[in-house]
Amino acid sequence: FNSDVPVHRGASKPLLNEIVDAAPVHGESGMDGYDFPPIAEKDLASTHAVEAMKETILKSDDPLTIIAIGPLTNIAILLSTYPEVTDYIKEIVLMGGSTGRGNVIPLAEFNIYCDPEAAQVVFNSGLPLTMIVLDLAREAMFSHDFV
């Protein structure tokens, strides 16, 4: 998206389960309809995503808000491995859960379904959480023309 944001490799799979693929819904790139330029290994920062989050959080002068728009695996690993970061996190805003039907199975929304154990770690972290549930996210759809 023409931004200069470092991209770090995160966890390769959920904490306990196998990977759940959303390609049938969101396309191979995760954002069907947007043509991403080819990605090369050299485009990835050498630091693992969890380490990068830890360094960024601990270096910040003010507590940070984490915005999670996918499964919570990397955040769960961060909180479990480096519990000291919780003092530097203002809140976690996450896209996940549902107040109605799920989008994977009737009672499960994709981001939580993909790694429920990671979600449990985050939900039990004691940090302030704001959930943007599936029902609300579906109301905030942008057309391709709008984007």
Keywords:
alpha/beta; 6 helices; single chain; 3-stranded parallel beta sheet; 147 residues; globular
Low-confidence stretches: none
- Output the strand order for the largest sheet: 1-2-3
Question: What percentage of residues falls in helices of 4 or more residues?
Answer: 25-40%
Q: What oligomerization state is this entry in? A: single chain
H-E order: HHEHEHHEH
- Portion of residues in beta strands equals 5-15%
Main sheet summary: 3 strands, parallel
Shape: globular
By helix and strand content, what is the structural category? Answer: alpha/beta
Number of strands: 3
Give the N-terminus to C-terminus distance in angstroms: 11 Å
Radius of gyration: 16 Å
Helical region count?
6
**Taking all residues together, what is the mean pLDDT?**
87
Tell me what you see in this structure.
29% of the residues lie in helices and 11% in strands. The protein has 147 residues and is an alpha/beta fold. Strand 1 (64-68), helix 3 and strand 2 form a beta-alpha-beta unit. Helix 2 packs across helix 3 and helix 3 packs across helix 5 (116-123). It starts with 22 loop residues before the first helix and ends in an 8-residue tail after the last helix.
